[in-house]
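Hi everyone,

Forwarding the result from last night's run.
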Amino acid sequence: MNLKNKIVTVIGLGNSGVNAANLLSDAGAVVRATDSQDTPATREAQAALEKRNIKVEIGGHTENFIKGSRLIVVSPGVKESSVALQWAKEHHITIISELELGFRFSKGRIIAVTGTNGKSTVTTLIGEILKSGGKDTVVCGNIGNSLCQEIARIKDDTWVVIEVSSFQLERIEKFRPEIALILNITDDHMDRYNNFNDYFSVKSKIFRNQTADDILILNYDAPYLRDLKKKTRSNVIFYSKKEGSSDAYVKDGWVTCVSEGKIRRIARISDIRLKGAHNLENVLASAIAGLRAGVREDSIGRTVKNFIGLEHRFETVDTIDGVEYVDDSKGTTVDSTCRALESCDRPVILIAGGRDKLSDYTVIRGILRERVRQVILIGEAKERIRSSLDGTVESIFADTMPQAVELAGRFAKGGEIVLLSPMCSSFDMFRDYKHRGEVFKEAVKKLKTRRVPI
């Protein structure tokens, strides 16, 4: 991609935007960067970019800053309603995502993972499978470093495993993964999309540019994904918890895959440290992706058995007086909380709430009746969640996470589970889901300290 001496403007100065600006500068472009917010974070980004002679405006956008650009690169967090994007359209300037920019500079072989839930676990596990199998591997995207930040590390034989969000897929043009995975698509980000069909359509862009030489891995147990086989030129591979129409499935207590016409046993389910039906799906998807990338089944089996999962994803924090405290702060959707509750084999005290994404909370009513004894609600969405759950299970409000943990500790009985699985984003009270999980863990730690007999 030749951008030397061409004016390129980056909209949004989060991690992705800053890395895109740096990559563009390295490529010889005349780079501008703009952000609507004036915060300590954007000021820090401004100072770093201006040292590279990149012109930056923060605290608002101006049309003159956009006008004259050959290309616009938009960060994932920037909404379609942004005035900067409207000006770019009026001036007929090409707009692409940071993901698309990174793809155009990347030399590697790409595995892209999307879905509403499980993306980070699968992306990380595939990365570990490839590394253990002797493959040069870079893991990036929505999970950590952006693709643009990793370009210098990527060679022709590098496998690049990317966690891809719907926001990143909105403005792709040529992005084409060699292997694409769609794990599931359920109600999410209704504060950004008009309806579920719009969200589903954007997620489906991950395979738009694939050909018959490429692989699309789909969850057969999600019926709405099966029909995608009719809408793609890709070589479609299904995985399922049941044996049947899939190349990765469970049989006789084993994760089993079919590759090159042979049945390959990967690992006994009893030996896998990741727990829960949703994580079994994640293992199946990761295993078949690893096989198709050329990793031996024995190597995949060892990696799967040693993989302990990710922080803030159904992670046991501690057990106090017989009560297990579980951090599932990454559970930012209703469906992810449903999956977490399905993995609980004992009564649950659920801590939920945060910034509302206009999700339909009524769909969780059934499993709440089955698994949950008490709900403690926090954050901006607490009133709406309580209204949606009315009559299902008793709920109370807490003003802070430490207060929620304290209340949960009073309600919970020995043998029960206190589960933080919010169903919402974290930005009303915390920096991000990691910060929310850290505050939960610290509150659990303090609760234990107060209860330890002297």
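The domain at 315-449 is CATH 3.90.190.20 (Protein-Tyrosine Phosphatase; Chain A).

Cheers,
N.
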